[in-house]
# Entry
Amino acid sequence: MQFEFGEFKTTVRVSREIPLFDQIASDLGVDGSSRFLVICDENTSPIADAVCGSLPRCLLKSGESSKTWQGVQSILSAAQEAGIGRDGVFIGIGGGVIGDLSGFAASVYMRGCRLALVATTLLAMVDASLGGKTGFDLFGIKNLAGSFYPAEIVYMPLNCLASLAPAELKSGMGELIKTAVLAGDDFLDGLDQFAFGFPGNFASNLLPDERFCQYISRAAAFKGRIAGEDPKETGKMRMLLNLGHTFGHALEAAAGLGNISHGEAVAWGMVRSAELGFALGLTPRSRAEKIREVISSYGYEIRAPHPLARDTDSFLAAMKNDKKKKSGRLTFIVPDDKDAVSEVCARHIVIESEKEMKTVMGIIKGEITF
# Structure
């Protein structure tokens, strides 16, 4: 697959096996004289060994705690020490955190060097590695600082998913379900059949199933196509990919960044978004119920208030810091009818009145549902 994001082009290669360095160099059209920096974390360091051997490396601590300016600075420092020039290549090997940090660092190092990503988590494959959004957490706000800088090539070695911890699988599945909701009920119904036993049966049942792997590719293609139509999110179409994110990002912040995974927060946020859409007369009850049932069947926490964020004031403060607000007003994406004419089954709304804001707060507290 290949996608265009304005002046950038991204090639996506989905396969079972991890790419070796010779393949990466060949795909990028570079030879041995080019300089490379490998960025990985404690979990993906063994994969980096297999992919890139003894190339210069920046090793970061695993998890959201590394997604800071200090993490970016570590990459930039390692690149300078390795003598990377503007024609050098950053190779990020890992999940969403490594991809976001590698992309941002590549976008600012010498005003932009080359970037390749090896996505090793489900979250990275279906969402985080595509579209060019990069960034890091700042002042306790998720992704407050960032840039748009798509990778030239993204590898998705599916066999890497076999070793993922259950929490990582749940994080990725949350974004995969989000894509299925946006793409329509045939995708959502297809995912529903894989819910039983998840995540414990992932390596034994889901990963070997070519139908499930096709859903991963389908999600990547959906994200790449929509993001390519609006590479810097200046219009409303790409914003629809943020279904569940206004509620979800606020949950992540209110619970303390890193205490709940991104995908789990988005899954919880999608249920809240369906409730909001139903309350405002935009989401049919049957569709809202289907979304809730599929998310619940995968074992996500769907109750409101969320056990990790019962302090309404902290939740509201986090929500008001959301990057997607317009003219100081909160914005949400809510599910649309499955038969919507739009190519994405969701719509964008802005909270305009005090009454609508009370509805949002009632949903957060669990006082309003369907």
Remarks:
- Residues 41 and 62 are 5 Å apart (CA to CA).
- The two ends are 40 Å apart (CA to CA).
- Residues 210-229 form the longest helix (20 residues).
